[in-house]
Design a protein that fits this description.
Helix content is about 35%, strand content about 10%. It is of the alpha+beta class and about 250 residues long. Helix 3 (about 145-155) runs antiparallel to helix 5.
Length: about 250
Amino acid sequence: MNLTLKVWRQRNRNTEGRIVDYQVQDISPDMSFLEMLDVLNEDLLRKGEEPVVFDHDCREGICGSCNLFINGRAHGPEPGTTTCQLHMRKFSDGDTITIEPWRSSAFPVNKDLSVDRSAFDRIIQAGGYISVNTGGTPDANEIPVPKEIADRAFEAATCIACGACVASCKNSSAMLFVSAKVSQLALLPQGHVERKSRVENMVAQMDKEGFGACSNIGSCAAECPVGISLENIAILNREFLSAKATSNNLA
């Protein structure tokens, strides 16, 4: 396939960016989207031009690093798929493909298509964990957990923190991400001890990072590559209201 790429180029977060047109030729339909970008960068290097910067890591669809906005959709046109697992057979010869970084003030652009998602890390540091003493590995059945609860917690835990929910939300809300982390631990008995302080601290950090409010449109869940459910936002709201009503936080 021969394709026209409209790629966002930006030197750093303090400079203005712009869309630059590129042509790529002889792209195999079996290539992944990132492999196609590799071909583009090889062409640019041969011409003595600066390659396009983009984030990636495992390229197996499980780490969430490959955050690209493709033709107006987070991770591209294939539902339930990360960018690295999107294959070029989803496009046609002669197509024009627009490639942009995540759009959110909480995710400033590092360079080109790479964004700083450390805001998610700080939200997790605020309370997305349980405090336990380290030591030997506990027995798997030491704390009985009903299968239904374990399954729901596992579904929430599949969030890969890619940021597609933020990029696809008109408010740049991080509620789906935060709710998945809160729900995972709120459902399990190991997370009950800190459940009040956890949700208060994580929501406070989310607001501090500048993410927008949730207006329950559902675009986040629609574009989530691992299918995190909107039910988690309902759990987060319930946890937050309960925590505020009985809070020990006097600040």
